[in-house]
Amino acid sequence: PEQAARMKKLQEQEKRQKVEFRKRMEQEVSQFIQATGEPRRRFQPMNKIERSILHDVAEVAGLTSFSFGDDEDSRYVMVFKKEFAPSDEELDAYRRGEEWDPARAEERRRLRELAAQQEEAELERGPAPPGPPNDYKDKYRHLIGSDAAKAAARTMEANKAYGCVPVANKRDTRSIEEAMNEIRAKKRLRQAEDE
Questions:
Q1: Co-location of 96 and 153 in the same domain
Q2: H helix runs in the chain, sequence order
Q3: Looking at the DSSP assignment, which residues form a beta bridge with residue 80?
Q4: Nearest to 88, CA basis, from 115, 110, 70, 109
Q5: What's the pLDDT score for residue 158?
Q6: Whole domain around residue 4: which residue ranges?
Q7: Where is this chain compositionally biased, Basic and acidic residues type (predicted)?
Q8: Would residue 108 count as lying in a domain?
């Protein structure tokens, strides 16, 4: 019973702390909304429960909120007014742990655009023509001359001893059927002689 009472007391204390923390965050958020020259506000690092309370308060107030920071001890919440909602680039900068610099981001965006335009121009120009950058025949011109290949091509003639044999040159003029019949006849004759 004593332990249960102690637990209940602790839970009530935690609940009170959460309620107080929420009130404090609601006050800070409303101050932030009224501050005209402040598009975003970074809060101190806080634990998971406190961050979730702050996110909830921000959402109810119609603000955008994000958590940044790598480890649990250094994680913090940033709250943005709707009209100053962060771009993906801005969020990436905070995730990397950098300060957001709109001028530098604009410069980076311009460079990226320029690179994209150059890439597009390259694509429009099309690929370089295939083939070697120089004519390999130039290397051997002193050996083959400039018209050796053309002359060789003109005098090209089929070598009669090679390739297709004209019918006149064939020794055996029988068709395949005739040749096969003749072979079968010889076989039969041989078998008859053996018997």
A1: no
A2: 2-34, 48-60, 88-95, 102-125, 136-144, 148-154, 176-194
A3: 40, 64
A4: 109
A5: 59
A6: 1-101
A7: 98-113
A8: no
Q: Which residues of 10-45 are buried (b: 16+ CB within 10 A; e: fewer)?
A: eeeeeeeeeeebeeebbeebeebeeeeeeebbebeb
Which amino acid does the sequence have at 128? A
* Domain count along the chain: 2
Q: What is the pLDDT of residue 8?
A: 94
Structure tokens belonging to residue 8? 């209940």
pLDDT tens digits, one per residue of 11-30: 999 999 999 999 999 999 99
Same domain, 34 and 86: yes
Residues lower than pLDDT 70 in the chain: 127-137, 144, 146, 148-170
Same domain, 10 and 77: yes
Give yes or no: residues 91 and 141 share one domain: no
CATH of the domain at 45: 3.30.1370.50
Q: How would DSSP label each residue in 152-179?
A: HHHT----TTSSSPPGGG-S----HHHH
Instruction: Tell me what pLDDT residue 132 has.
Output: 62
Answer yes or no: do 77 and 156 share one domain: no
The total number of residues written for the chain in this structure = 195
